[in-house]
Protein backbone atom coordinates (compact mmCIF):
# COMPACT_ATOMS: atom_id res chain seq x y z
CA UNK A 1 0.00 0.00 0.00
CA UNK A 2 1.26 3.45 -0.82
CA UNK A 3 -0.69 6.32 0.69
CA UNK A 4 0.40 9.94 0.69
CA UNK A 5 -0.90 11.96 3.62
CA UNK A 6 -2.28 15.33 2.63
CA UNK A 7 -0.62 18.32 4.26
CA UNK A 8 -2.74 19.50 7.16
CA UNK A 9 -4.78 16.31 7.40
CA UNK A 10 -5.26 14.61 10.74
CA UNK A 11 -4.77 10.95 11.60
CA UNK A 12 -8.54 10.34 11.86
CA UNK A 13 -9.08 11.97 8.43
CA UNK A 14 -6.33 9.87 6.87
CA UNK A 15 -7.74 6.73 8.48
CA UNK A 16 -11.19 7.51 7.09
CA UNK A 17 -9.70 8.08 3.61
CA UNK A 18 -7.83 4.78 3.72
CA UNK A 19 -10.83 2.85 5.04
CA UNK A 20 -12.96 4.31 2.24
CA UNK A 21 -10.70 2.45 -0.20
CA UNK A 22 -11.16 -1.27 0.57
CA UNK A 23 -8.15 -2.30 -1.51
CA UNK A 24 -5.99 -0.27 0.86
CA UNK A 25 -7.82 -0.87 4.11
CA UNK A 26 -7.94 -4.67 3.73
CA UNK A 27 -4.20 -5.17 3.32
CA UNK A 28 -2.88 -7.98 5.54
CA UNK A 29 0.19 -5.99 6.61
CA UNK A 30 0.87 -2.28 6.48
CA UNK A 31 4.35 -0.85 6.87
CA UNK A 32 4.24 2.90 7.35
CA UNK A 33 7.20 5.11 6.47
CA UNK A 34 6.89 8.70 7.58
CA UNK A 35 9.05 11.37 9.13
CA UNK A 36 8.98 12.52 12.73
CA UNK A 37 6.91 15.65 12.21
CA UNK A 38 4.56 16.54 15.06
CA UNK A 39 1.40 15.10 13.50
CA UNK A 40 3.16 11.78 12.89
CA UNK A 41 4.49 11.41 16.44
CA UNK A 42 1.40 12.78 18.18
CA UNK A 43 -0.10 10.48 20.78
CA UNK A 44 -3.42 10.26 18.90
CA UNK A 45 -1.61 9.24 15.71
CA UNK A 46 0.48 6.65 17.54
CA UNK A 47 -2.62 5.20 19.20
CA UNK A 48 -4.43 4.91 15.86
CA UNK A 49 -1.42 3.26 14.21
CA UNK A 50 -1.24 0.74 17.06
CA UNK A 51 -5.01 0.14 16.92
CA UNK A 52 -4.77 -0.60 13.19
CA UNK A 53 -1.84 -2.96 13.76
CA UNK A 54 0.45 -1.07 11.41
CA UNK A 55 4.23 -1.24 11.70
CA UNK A 56 6.11 2.06 11.56
CA UNK A 57 9.43 1.67 9.79
CA UNK A 58 12.33 3.43 11.53
CA UNK A 59 13.79 6.48 9.83
CA UNK A 60 16.31 9.09 10.97
CA UNK A 61 14.85 12.61 11.44
CA UNK A 62 16.23 14.14 8.23
CA UNK A 63 17.27 11.56 5.69
CA UNK A 64 16.45 12.37 2.06
CA UNK A 65 18.69 9.48 1.02
CA UNK A 66 16.16 7.13 2.69
CA UNK A 67 12.96 8.88 1.60
CA UNK A 68 11.46 7.31 -1.54
CA UNK A 69 9.96 10.68 -2.45
CA UNK A 70 13.42 12.29 -2.46
CA UNK A 71 15.68 9.65 -4.01
CA UNK A 72 13.18 8.25 -6.51
CA UNK A 73 10.19 10.46 -7.24
CA UNK A 74 11.78 13.91 -7.00
CA UNK A 75 14.85 12.79 -8.96
CA UNK A 76 12.59 11.75 -11.83
CA UNK A 77 10.53 14.91 -11.45
CA UNK A 78 13.65 17.09 -11.49
CA UNK A 79 14.72 15.48 -14.77
CA UNK A 80 11.22 15.96 -16.20
CA UNK A 81 11.13 19.66 -15.26
CA UNK A 82 14.67 20.41 -16.41
CA UNK A 83 14.76 23.46 -18.71
CA UNK A 84 10.98 23.87 -18.72
CA UNK A 85 9.40 27.29 -18.25
CA UNK A 86 5.80 28.07 -17.41
CA UNK A 87 3.71 31.14 -18.10
CA UNK A 88 1.58 30.71 -14.99
CA UNK A 89 0.88 28.45 -12.03
CA UNK A 90 -1.98 26.66 -13.78
CA UNK A 91 0.32 25.60 -16.62
CA UNK A 92 2.78 24.19 -14.08
CA UNK A 93 -0.03 22.42 -12.24
CA UNK A 94 -1.28 20.79 -15.45
CA UNK A 95 2.20 19.63 -16.38
CA UNK A 96 2.80 18.17 -12.90
CA UNK A 97 -0.49 16.31 -13.11
CA UNK A 98 0.55 14.93 -16.49
CA UNK A 99 3.89 13.81 -15.03
CA UNK A 100 2.33 11.94 -12.09
CA UNK A 101 -0.35 10.36 -14.26
CA UNK A 102 2.22 9.23 -16.84
CA UNK A 103 4.05 7.08 -14.31
CA UNK A 104 2.87 3.47 -14.13
CA UNK A 105 2.25 1.90 -10.72
CA UNK A 106 5.47 -0.08 -11.21
CA UNK A 107 7.42 3.20 -11.04
CA UNK A 108 6.05 3.99 -7.59
CA UNK A 109 6.41 0.37 -6.48
CA UNK A 110 10.08 0.35 -7.50
CA UNK A 111 10.74 3.41 -5.35
CA UNK A 112 9.47 1.49 -2.33
CA UNK A 113 11.20 -1.77 -3.27
CA UNK A 114 14.68 -0.25 -3.45
CA UNK A 115 14.28 1.21 0.03
CA UNK A 116 15.73 -1.93 1.67
CA UNK A 117 18.79 -1.68 -0.62
CA UNK A 118 19.29 1.92 0.41
CA UNK A 119 18.98 1.04 4.10
CA UNK A 120 21.67 -1.63 3.61
CA UNK A 121 23.92 0.99 1.98
CA UNK A 122 23.48 3.31 4.95
CA UNK A 123 24.41 0.49 7.35
CA UNK A 124 27.46 -0.40 5.23
CA UNK A 125 28.50 3.28 5.32
CA UNK A 126 28.12 3.50 9.11
CA UNK A 127 25.10 5.75 8.82
CA UNK A 128 26.70 8.25 6.46
CA UNK A 129 24.57 10.00 3.87
CA UNK A 130 24.31 8.24 0.50
CA UNK A 131 25.27 10.35 -2.49
CA UNK A 132 23.87 9.10 -5.82
From TrEMBL:
<dbReference type="InterPro" id="IPR036397">
    <property type="entry name" value="RNaseH_sf"/>
</dbReference>
<dbReference type="InterPro" id="IPR052709">
    <property type="entry name" value="Transposase-MT_Hybrid"/>
</dbReference>
<dbReference type="GO" id="GO:0003676">
    <property type="term" value="F:nucleic acid binding"/>
</dbReference>
<protein>
    <recommendedName>
        <fullName>Transposase</fullName>
    </recommendedName>
</protein>
